[in-house]
């Protein structure tokens, strides 16, 4: 089916995703979610917090880390379910959502993203945390667990990015795609990212606002600045000393070919969930499956000697 772009719909197209995000934020705040802001590493960082539900473990906080061009609101469908495990903190990475930028720059490097999450654990949460990250967020979570395992109770990576593969050249097609030079590319990204056809069709109305997300400085400058030393190597993953898990949507074609196999084959004894008919954002397309998997992972791996405290 061919989807033609109609210029008369541009005002709606530019406004759709900001409007939906505003409504989502309003609903979260009405349902007991608290929003806060702290300065971490000199950057104003916005985040949401959900207290653990009755009977949950206050000593097992969870921090949720979104992907590139996304925001904390991507986790809206899983927040309250995960709060049955422990308190949940949902960060807007620097330059995304309602967070600010590093001083004098309109993007943050991968090292700065990792540093901000590390500071969030140390200065806001105050105890080792379970890290759950999607896409770029999975990359950040893995880097943090490798560099500072004492701050990490475990890591769950959801369609993570950052696989070394054949180095930066193997990422060039992805880099060209996220440059989204035209609406045809936007529609290709929809097909690559989302498994649910109704979700794809709804997003066609917001093509312009989706394109704008990827054209912002925090995305374009981050992608341009990434170097091979930033990527995760097989040795990095093999050396992870905390419990790990991998969730993957089987129809995800957004990341470079071989990304799933890279994590599957190099993570040490990961717990794994693959979701048929699901794309790059399982927390949006399969929130119930994600919550149930996390609860099972915690019961099996994070209440044992495998999980440092």
Percent in helix: 40-55%
CATH topology title: Rossmann fold
Structural class: alpha/beta
| Main sheet overview | 8 strands, mixed
Give the N-terminus to C-terminus distance in angstroms: 53 Å
Separate helix tally: 13
Q: Which oligomeric state applies?
A: single chain
How would you describe this structure to a colleague?
The protein has 309 residues and is of the alpha/beta class. It has one domain: Alpha/Beta hydrolase fold, catalytic domain (Rossmann fold). It is built from 13 helices and eight strands. It has helices at 10-30, 79-82, 110-125, 136-147, 172-178, 183-193, 197-204, 207-215, 217-225, 234-238, 259-266, 282-285, 287-301; strands at 34-40, 43-50, 62-65, 88-91, 129-134, 152-158, 244-249, 271-275. Helix 2 links the parallel strand 3 and strand 4. Mean pLDDT is 92; it is low at 304-309.
Topology, element by element:
Elements: H1 10-30, E1 34-40, E2 43-50, E3 62-65, H2 79-82, E4 88-91, H3 110-125, E5 129-134, H4 136-147, E6 152-158, H5 172-178, H6 183-193, H7 197-204, H8 207-215, H9 217-225, H10 234-238, E7 244-249, H11 259-266, E8 271-275, H12 282-285, H13 287-301
Parallel strand pairs: 3-4, 3-5, 5-6, 6-7, 7-8
Antiparallel strand pairs: 1-2, 2-4
Helix pairs in contact: 1-8, 3-4
